[in-house]
Please model this.
Amino acid sequence: MRAEVLERTWEPSSWLGIPAGWHASPQNPCTLSASPGSRFGREDSRLSRYYIKYNGSKTDSMKSVLILIASVACAWGAADAGALAEATAGLGLAREGKYELAISHYRAAIALDPHLPGIYLNLGLAYMKLDRFPDAAAAFEQAAKADPASFQARVLLGMSYYGCRRFDAAAVQLKLAVEQQPENLELRFKLAQSYLWSKQYGQAIEEFRALLDKDPDSAPVHLLLGEVLDAANQEEQATAEFEAAVKASHPEPEAHFALGYMDWKQKRFEEARREFQAELASQPKHTQALTYLGDTELHLDAAKDAEEHLRLALSLEANIRLAHLDLGILLAARNDDAGAADHFREAIRLDATKPDAHYRLGRLLRSMGREQEADAEFAKVKELAKEEPQAPLIALPGVDRKQLP
Amino acid sequence: MNGVPVPGRLVLAAAGLVAAMWAVASGQNAEAPIHFVYHPIDFRLESCETPQRHAPETMAGGVAVFDYNNDGHPDIFFTNGADIETLKKSSAKYFNRLFENDGKGNFKDVTAKAGLAGTGYDTGVAIGDYDNDGYEDIFVGGVHGNHLYHNNGDGTFTDVTAKAGLDRPDSQYGPLWSVGGAWVDVNNDGLLDLFVVNYLAWDINTEPVCEAAPGKRDYCHPKFYKATANQLFLNNGDGTFRDVSAESGIRAHPGKGMGVGIADYDLDGLMDIFVTNDKMENSLFHNRGGGKFEEVAFDAGVALAEDGKFISGMGVDFRDIDNDGLPDIAFVALDNETFPLFRNLGKRGFADITGSSGMARQSLPMAGYSPTIADFDNDGWKDIFVTRGHVQSLGYASRVQVEQPNTVFRNLGGARFQALTGEAGLTAQPPSRHRGSAVGDLNGDGRLDVVVTAIGAPAEIWINDSPGGNHWIEFALEGTKSNRDGIGARIKVTAGGSVQYNHVSFAAGYASSSAGPTHFGLGAAKSADLVEIRWPSGIVQELRNVAADRVVKVKEPPKLMRRAFFFTAPREFTLCGELHPSHRFR
Model:
């Protein structure tokens, strides 16, 4: 169910729009020695150089791609040969996973011919491979601008926005793409995810439910629908979706964890413990499951088990705030003040904006007679503990009560 | 100590008749271990809720259960709102009300005769006999004005606010908004002092405007208002009070007070004060003696819930829940905040047992206002009755249940609780925005009943018809050296091999006062083997072999009387106190 869009777009036949079955011959004598002044004249030797270079070193498939591109360029006769040479080189490098180098060639190609078909798409794809999503988005924006009807530009732009965590913008582009291909379930899945992360819960629920209409047994869709419902405070329905994810014929990893988390949130600690244990049965090194299991056991007064799981979680990943906080609580309970203080401080280091560790540390320090340090922690608690109002309850600035109806 | 024998047989017969009348009125049967039936009363809480959603409109609703005329039947006093613009009771619908209980299921409105209709926007009530004349007086806290009503003993009250010196606006904060208070003898001089809980700084002209959604006005979050200080007034013994808020240390800790509980949590003989604050840390004022208090909430571990976050601290009760002799703290908050429980560990402060007690899980979706710790099924373990309802207005948000039923959390034996709502009969009335609550044995059957208010809705009387036939005993103390109400006296009861504790405090819940005798459930035990009373004066009094199912009037002896009673009292009589005629054997 995962989107495969990216891999597909690497096929040059797709982005150049070459008809299927169109082949170029290695012996194609595409004349690069055009008359002086023509667009090809200046860069012909360069194209040849690249051609030769790659022709001599690459696999058969790579050769065919390069030959194809060169042939297309020759056949179309519309592109700057130098730009094509740069693009070709870039493509070859990209094929080798050398994306930084590929990007420099793509940029060189753009400098020579900004209208080279598909160049921005490939530039964007190279950026995406490097997780440079803002740069990728800029490239895809150019691609979409050049061809507003391009389905792929739309999809890739949406994907790059998604990578930039600009989920609102991603949803807009992916929605346009879905309108072009409403049966593309992978695309709809990505659109639904964009809705989820951009907090457009109503649309997300609608998309995920539409996907479930097509495939009611899809564990990942159930899982993500559960996430949306949870985010929308529809906790019972969320739990039902997580249960469906667990019961699917191919259960999704994380489903038990998600169910356990729902139980944990609802303080149903016995049930939460069972779900976390189930997740760990298939993923023994799931650090979140280990941490929440430990926390759950702490609430269940199972100190020994809690400590074991929290320590295991920290051995796998040292920077888990909750694990440090809980270990501090456990150690403080058995009067290991120094150990407890260390863990509380580590929890604070990992996130100094949470008041709980300051509160615990302050109480510990007070019990140790370290009054000033305790007071400092309590002062931080007071500063930090100011929670946001529930729901979107906001004060309207500058409104005069007396002027209101 | 007086000993007035009352023939038990006659009393028993009368009790059967009265109980039958209340049962007919309710028409329901008990099923759960704790069960209530609804009984109507002609009072509707009018908070003047406007589209502007001014903060006081959602905070009204204090109620008191007390015996104003000493006839043995607990009566009911309701505070009420006013016109929010003028803070005046511009209509009779805003009057406070006093209802006299005839013990037969009838409540007669005696407000006019008593002179208790009030004048302002009233919120809370605290009952106490501040002049030790044997008649309970009434402190009414409100928005920008408090009142002290002296009980004249003839069914009337006199407003003595100005004479008492309680009418002055605060020099720093100006007019304050009180949500009630507690009568407590902070210096053990035999005179009840007054602790006033103040909420937040509110001015109708400068109050922020808040919206739950565009164009949808609702009550603002407390963070948009400034905190104010609580007040402590020392009783001069001549009908006047002296404001010692600053010199006592109370004033140095402003908050947004919503509830007050009093108890001697460290058993040093001095009453301490716990105040819940709305979206602020709570305050625990430790009484150091000499009229000085030290705020120790952080040190004691009761400033915040265990996650260190500010929650909407509402009403509170401060009593021993687990029968270890150390007063514990139960308070309530809004949904997703849980109803915190702090267990008193003695010298090690308090432990947050909200999770392990089962309270966290069960209260998570609930919004509460007024908790009262009392033994509703007389099994020897104190339960917690919670009035429920959200602070926001109706239609605030679809995901929030604004109107809710009340719930009683049954104590399963120490530190675990089971929530009973529908099972306890409490869904017999529609859900509502419940606010204050007060308890007392209104029908004299030995089971504690509850009176509850609700914003813009009729008040509810919940008559306790819990099954089981457990025995009980109540102590109506009369201090001589100590304050006459005996507030602060610690009572230890040994019965049937179990020991339990309570102390006299009329402050409980939200803005309310439960000023009846101190109640103990005895389970199957037909008598209390030993009753030990530690008076605020330091005098310790012991009663032995006290028969169950009665109210025992106990007068403070003039000197130490430890082990004063060695003989067994006949069942029909109470030699160690007076059996009040309005309370009967089962």
Observations:
- The two ends of chain B are 26 Å apart (CA to CA).
- The helical segments of chain B are 8-26, 111-114, 161-164, 245-248, 297-300, 359-363.
- Chain B touches chain A through 43 residues (CB under 8 Å).
- Chain B is about 5% helix and 35% strand.
